[in-house]
Amino acid sequence: MSIQSVTAHRWWPWARRIGVAGFLAFVVFMLVHEARAIDWREVFATMRDYPLRVVALAALLAWTSHLIYSTFDLVGRHYTAHPLRPGSVMAITFVSYAFNLNLGTVVGALAMRVRLYTRLGLEAPVIARVVGLSMLTNWLGYCLLAGLAFLFWPVPMPSDWHMGTVALRVLGGVLVLASLAYMVLCAVSKRREFHVLGHEIDLPVLRLACVQLAISCANWSVMGATMYVLLLGQVAYPVALGVLLIGAISGLMSRVPAGLGVLEAVFIALLSPPLSSTTLIAAVLTYRAVYYWAPLAAATVVYLAMEAHAKKLAARASADGSTSGRQLQPSC
Question: Does residue 140 lie within any of the structural domains?
């Protein structure tokens, strides 16, 4: 290993931590600054004044998004040819996604999937491939949609973000090219196996990659539609989608569970004006209620039911083993 690589290995973790800490400090500053100016009584009054049909439509779109996301691990099921039933796979994906949104990637996307899949008999290498492909599916659609939004409907960025419209368009072009490069690689690459961070990755065939792109784009599009409905059509749909996509990656970078406060800060920074902070906070909080908290409550019930079912199966297997053992004992 060269001296340069050793040096880079030493400074990169610190640089990353400093960058994340700086971004988090910026978010906290914005939240404190904006929170002082927000009339919270007016925010809650705005939430209460939402027409029932608007909230019902937003909730329907939110559950549609969760249903679409629940199919992500079915791609991994086809990819690895593991024997679990589609219904079980979708239930695990739904539970892990809801916990992921509210408690972070380590708890939801990783720990929850590993625990539930292991209880159903999948081995660690298979679980790793399923989870890895699911994450890739999620960000594949993100890259394409975010890239198109930044290219053709760039949101005016605040001056203190140090990113103008031109830079945002360039970023959009890079994201689109990244998603298309993956598709081309799946279509024409003669090399089908790659090693990334010690893990072997087999490229899926183009047809499976197209399914990944389609369901991921559908999921992010429905998420954008949910926020668009809650903003009562006061901004164009591509703008609502673009801001939501920026908020999603900002929440991931901040490492704050559920991106709590980050999504609100991004919407205020990018859409106020023309919209008031009160309107934006009310929309984002309602979005959290229908997209984060209600599914989490349902996922908790599903998870507890799955745990109870697993314990019954384990107890039954233990009892069957004990009975068989007694029958095999010689009589006196």
Answer: yes
